[in-house]
Structure formats: C-alpha cells, structure tokens
Amino acid sequence: DASCPAGWVVTQLERAGFEVQRVQNLGTHYSRTLAQWLEEWRAARGAMVAKYGERAFRRWEVFLAWSVRIARQGSSTVFMITATKQVQERKRIDIQKHLAPQL
Questions:
Q1: pLDDT tens digit string along 45-56?
Q2: pTM for the whole structure
Q3: HEC-encoded secondary structure of the chain
C-alpha cells in the first residue's frame, strides 16, 4: 500500500526477523512514472475509449491524475527497502558490502 508509513513497514519486517539495511524513498520517481502513464493514457484516448468505453477511460484518467497529485505532495509514496533475514550471516555481510563497498 503506497500510503503505509515506512516506520510501520519496517516494524513489521523487524518483528518477522528481518534486519533492515536501507530504506530509500522513491516518491519523486514514482510521481514522474505516474505522470508518464497519465500522458500515455491520454494520448491513446481514441483506442482506449473504443475498447473500454468513455466511462472506463474517464475513471482511469481521474485515478491516474489523482495518483500523480498525491505522489507529488508526498501523501502517497513508494519505498525501496533492503532487508536481510537475521541469522543469514553470509547474505548479511554480502549486502552490507554492496551497500557500502568503501567500508
């Protein structure tokens, strides 16, 4: 769910025995992706209306436009979380080497 707070997700991962290595907010990238999808949807209006009807086209147009807006505002975002299962020593060391190769 794009509206889940990162802290809640991290807590659930930790309760399940994962160690969170990194959390990265991809919200600005997500808003640009959504804006591109909206642009492509609108550009294909004729074909989409012919296939799905005006009502379905408009429903998706509103949904995408709303999604762009809330993603730009930060009300909805996407997080990329890198986590390793505790006790998997080799994987834990490998991911830490990948995330911080200079150390």
A1: 999 999 999 999
A2: 0.66
A3: CCCCCHHHHHHHHHHCCEEEEEEEECHHHHHHHHHHHHHHHHHCHHHHHHHHCHHHHHHHHHHHHHHHHHHHHCCCCCEEEEEEECCCHHHHHHHHHHHCCCC
